[in-house]
UniProtKB/TrEMBL annotation:
Keywords: Transferase. This is Probable glycosyltransferase. Residues 25-191, 211-379 form the Glycosyl transferase family domain. Gene3D superfamilies: Glycogen Phosphorylase B. GO terms for molecular function: glycosyltransferase activity. It comes from the Bacteria. GO terms for biological process: lipopolysaccharide biosynthetic process. The keyword Lipid biosynthesis does not apply. PANTHER family: GLYCOSYLTRANSFERASE WBBK-RELATED. InterPro entries: Glyco_trans_1, Glyco_trans_4. Pfam families: Glyco_trans_4_3, Glycos_transf_1.
Length: 423
């Protein structure tokens, strides 16, 4: 089988399935904007970056869509160049969120298209109108509805779709859910596990090791979408009540999902200014982004790992923390609640309550013995539901084969009934 993977930041969600198909003998090509990581058996080709779009004369509702169209054009041109060199895929696996999948049906009318749909925007029940809670204006509702233009065009042409969690699946329209599987990328639990000899170097030159009391927080960007302000506001209480605790925060200063503070600067700068004089900064460590191996060392040392999020896409870092046997203090929001059951395999807290967050962290630090069963259950949850080699990768390969052969993916798990979603 000839398979093309399309993702601007390849390998991303295709890190495991692309080399797995290549290993069994499929001809696998990847198309992306960035150089990406070399994967065994995968030929990686770059397309030219799209021109900037969305100028001041473009209606603000459609600026993102205009950028998507430009990107889709560049990918279509690269697809035609591949076709001219003799490569026509039987199956195209594409993340269409940035527009890369808009015109692939026109380039290869006979190929089967399996698209990865990450998030469908709605003006209620998800990230919009969550923080601060309140009614969404008709102007914002219109903007949010228009954000789905790229997805709707991609859904129309895809033979089948996939999304990683039941809650993310539930956000899509009924007619779209009927042609989508819930298939998570998976966690390599044989690699992502607690390391008994772990040490982690702090920015100030000190090193954390076994026996240290460590509170961890990880996000691509330190921003409201991932609860960074509320976590920061919980720290004075945590650090006052746990004088030996060290807090380590991993993530970049730039937001990835929301905007910068209205008055400029970064959210880190804003919260440090707000809490000036209330934090022992020698025990609060900002690392920026770190290599994945260092991240696993840090998670291996975590005494309590805080994961907060708007109702939005679920971060890989939460499942990796659970796979490392961390005690996760998570927000009682979707899709965290799909994975963590309070008091069973983690602790759930009110996203908006620094007091609630602090109380749960202090509880975890004060009685680690009582948390041991929750840590073990967290690891089991990932092994039983998200293990890469035994569950998720075989499911992905079976899904690819079914779509490529024009079959309804009968072996994909049937999604449970979704909760009612806003229209």
């Amino acid at each position: 089988m000839r398979v093309l993977f399309v993702h601007q930041n390849f390998p991303a969600q295709y890190r495991h399935v692309a080399p797995a198909l290549a290993k069994r003998g499929d001809a696998v090509v990847a198309l992306g904007e960035n150089a990406g990581e070399a994967l065994p058996g995968v030929r990686h080709i770059r397309y030219k970056p799209p021109p900037s779009a969305g100028g001041k004369d473009t209606h603000r509702y459609v600026r993102r869509f205009e950028n998507a169209v430009f990107r889709g054009q560049q990918v279509a041109r690269a697809a035609l160049a591949l076709k001219a060199r003799g490569f026509s895929p039987d199956l195209v696996c594409c993340h269409p969120g940035w527009g890369e999948g808009l015109f692939l049906r026109d380039a290869w009318p006979d190929a089967k298209l399996l698209y990865y749909f990450e998030y469908y925007f709605r003006s209620a029940g998800g990230d919009v109108g969550f923080d601060p809670p309140g009614e969404v204006s008709i102007d914002d509702a219109g903007r949010v509805r228009t954000l789905n233009a790229t997805h709707l065009m991609s859904l129309e042409q895809a033979d089948w779709g996939q999304t990683p969690t039941q809650w993310q699946w539930s956000r899509f329209p009924d007619w779209a859910r009927a042609r989508m599987s819930v298939a998570h990328e998976g966690v390599d639990t044989r690699v992502i596990r607690r390391r008994e000899d772990a040490r982690f170097a702090l920015p100030d030159g000190r090193a954390l090791g076994r026996g240290d009391e460590v509170v961890t927080f990880i996000a691509r960007g330190l921003e409201p979408y991932r609860g960074f302000p509320n976590f920061m506001r919980s720290l004075p209480e945590i650090l006052a009540r746990r004088p030996a605790a060290q807090v380590v925060m991993v993530g970049g200063d730039e937001p990835h999902y929301g905007g910068k503070p209205p008055d400029g600067g970064t959210w880190k700068e804003k919260l440090l200014a707000e809490l000036d004089g209330r934090l022992p900064l020698e025990r609060v460590h900002f690392t920026g982004k770190v290599p994945h191996a260092a991240l696993l060392d840090l998670l291996s040392l975590s005494s309590a790992h805080v994961y907060l999020t708007y109702p939005f896409v679920l971060s890989w870092s939460m499942l990796e923390a659970m796979s490392c046997g961390c005690l996760v203090v998570g927000s009682a929001t979707a899709p965290v609640q799909e994975v963590i059951q309070d008091g069973v395999n983690g602790l759930l807290v009110d996203f908006f309550s620094p007091d609630d967050i602090a109380a749960a962290v202090v509880r975890a630090l004060s009685d680690p013995g009582a948390m041991a069963p929750l840590r073990a259950a967290a690891r089991r949850t990932v092994e039983e539901r998200y293990d890469l080699r035994d569950i998720c990768l075989p499911q992905h390969v079976a899904l690819a084969d079914a779509v490529a052969n024009g079959r309804r993916p009968a072996d994909a798990p049937r999604p449970v009934a979704a909760t009612a979603s806003a229209r």
